[in-house]
TrEMBL record:
Name of the featured protein: Acyl-coenzyme A thioesterase THEM4
Family named by the database record: Belongs to the THEM4/THEM5 thioesterase family.
UniProt organism field: Streptomyces roseus
Keywords: Apoptosis, Cell membrane, Cell projection, Cytoplasm, Fatty acid metabolism, Hydrolase, Lipid metabolism, Membrane, Transit peptide
Gene Ontology cellular-component terms listed: cytoplasm; membrane
Predominant cellular place of this UniProt entry's protein: membrane
Gene Ontology MF terms: hydrolase activity
Catalytic activity annotation: octanoyl-CoA + H2O = octanoate + CoA + H(+); dodecanoyl-CoA + H2O = dodecanoate + CoA + H(+); hexadecanoyl-CoA + H2O = hexadecanoate + CoA + H(+); (9Z)-octadecenoyl-CoA + H2O = (9Z)-octadecenoate + CoA + H(+)
Enzyme Commission number, as recorded: 3.1.2.2
SUPFAM superfamilies xrefs: Thioesterase/thiol ester dehydrase-isomerase
Region (Disordered): 1-28
Native organism taxonomy: Bacteria, Bacillati, Actinomycetota, Actinomycetes, Kitasatosporales
Broad class of enzyme this protein falls into: hydrolase
GO biological process, one term: fatty acid metabolic process
Bilayer-crossing regions: none
Length: 194
């Protein structure tokens, strides 16, 4: 990727993020953006079933309970699953911006082991926007919303057109999502990330 700026630090001329006027009110649950999403969908038996809600500004909070299906080492959450929880929480910020964007880069720190049965309390915020690039950061705590940090991440999401999904997604899922009679579900499946 030489010649391109892939840094996770916003450039000096980056702008502050702007919460969309139609963004859900602080405290309002965001719900699943797509029923088959591994991060938040209700249609994934071993998925994370992550539940996010809007915060102030361009912030969200979320909880994810680590289940036996999420193990890496015996009794401990798999690091990739924890990265998914961070990615999903960060991705849900796009719904507050009303921007279609996908993860370009996700840098994760694993600070403490997370046992099965633990609730991971996640918080994420957009820190800056520069053109199509959305800079964001997240932490996950255990033992309570104010507990010690177990994981954290910095991310760069890149704004895309809806064609990103239509051109690249498998046709059967695209067709099914596009023909969903529920307009909100149809919109969110593509506006955020299928
Ligand atoms: C509720 C919501 C839940 C959401 C779930 C969580 C979200 C996800 O997991 S999304 C799924 C995972 N992500 C993907 O599949 C994305 C796959 N990648 C792609 O499709 C493309 O590489 C894409 C769209 C990211 C960028 O491609 P493209 O649009 O051609 O970008 P391009 O024009 O080359 O670059 C634009 C800018 O972004 C930067 N950029 C592009 N890719 C990256 C990257 N991987 N890392 C860092 N920066 C990048 C470029 O450097 C460039 O910046 P600058 O202009 O300052 O040099």
């Amino acid at each position: 990727m030489s010649g391109r700026n892939t840094a996770l630090t916003p450039p000096d001329d980056a702008a502050a993020p702007v919460r969309h006027p139609d963004a859900p009110a602080p405290g309002e649950p965001l719900g699943a953006h797509y029923g088959h999403c591994f991060g938040c969908g209700e249609g994934q038996p071993h998925g994370l079933h992550l539940e996010a809600r809007a915060g102030e500004g361009v912030r969200v909070s979320a909880e994810f309970t680590v289940k036996p299906a999420h193990q890496g080492a015996p009794g401990l959450a798999h690091g990739g699953v924890l990265a998914t929880a961070l990615d999903e929480t960060l991705g849900s910020l796009n719904w507050l911006l009303r921007v279609i964007a996908v993860t370009g880069r996700l840098e994760t720190d694993f600070v403490r082991p997370v046992p099965v049965g633990t609730v991971l309390y996640l918080e994420a915020e957009v820190t800056a926007v520069a053109g199509r690039k959305i800079y964001s950061t997240a932490v996950g705590r255990i033992g309570g919303p104010q507990g010690p940090v177990a994981v954290r991440a910095d991310a760069l999401f890149i704004e895309v057109k809806v064609d990103h999904f239509i051109d690249n997604g498998r046709p059967e899922e695209i067709r099914a999502a596009m023909s969903d009679p529920d307009q909100v579900r149809r919109t969110r499946a593509f506006e955020v990330n299928p």
